[in-house]
């Protein structure tokens, strides 16, 4: 029988984890990025659709290119972060369903239905991006998710053949704890939830 995670793990994933804007210069290795994928790929998606496609932007040249897409306040933190993940999605994810969901003809649910393709790909890639952040925290990385960027320009610069569309960005690395502000408040249960 599964047991709740110990408090130390819950602290690392949620309670003391913070969104970071300032980064140390400690690098993030290829091995860490592969370990990160091996964790977040296991998170559930509808019909195991797995539409997320992630580009890890690390080189100075690629960072400069990405900086062209960033809203003002996000530019410097993106250039300073060791890695920025462009969390995107494949608009042809359903072509993989015969392999990923072999016990039903799930491909037929999507083929020829662009609104369903877009809705499913965007929703599930968002879920997968959240799994990426939790996996990153579980590996000792810090995260700085962002939506302040020009998606069209990002897609043109990084996905010119149209095989991926960007959703949001996540800076990854080892945050500078000395530059954190106090945690912003959260809604109370009664403000955000109901039990019916």
From TrEMBL:
<dbReference type="InterPro" id="IPR023936">
    <property type="entry name" value="RutE-like"/>
</dbReference>
<keyword id="KW-0288">FMN</keyword>
<dbReference type="Pfam" id="PF00881">
    <property type="entry name" value="Nitroreductase"/>
</dbReference>
<dbReference type="InterPro" id="IPR050461">
    <property type="entry name" value="Nitroreductase_HadB/RutE"/>
</dbReference>
<dbReference type="GO" id="GO:0016491">
    <property type="term" value="F:oxidoreductase activity"/>
</dbReference>
<dbReference type="InterPro" id="IPR000415">
    <property type="entry name" value="Nitroreductase-like"/>
</dbReference>
<comment type="similarity">
    <text>Belongs to the nitroreductase family. HadB/RutE subfamily.</text>
</comment>
<dbReference type="InterPro" id="IPR029479">
    <property type="entry name" value="Nitroreductase"/>
</dbReference>
<protein>
    <recommendedName>
        <fullName>Putative NADH dehydrogenase/NAD(P)H nitroreductase SAMN05421508_108242</fullName>
        <ecNumber>1.-.-.-</ecNumber>
    </recommendedName>
</protein>
<keyword id="KW-0560">Oxidoreductase</keyword>
<keyword id="KW-0521">NADP</keyword>
<feature type="domain" description="Nitroreductase">
    <location>
        <begin position="18"/>
        <end position="158"/>
    </location>
</feature>
<keyword id="KW-0285">Flavoprotein</keyword>
<keyword id="KW-0520">NAD</keyword>
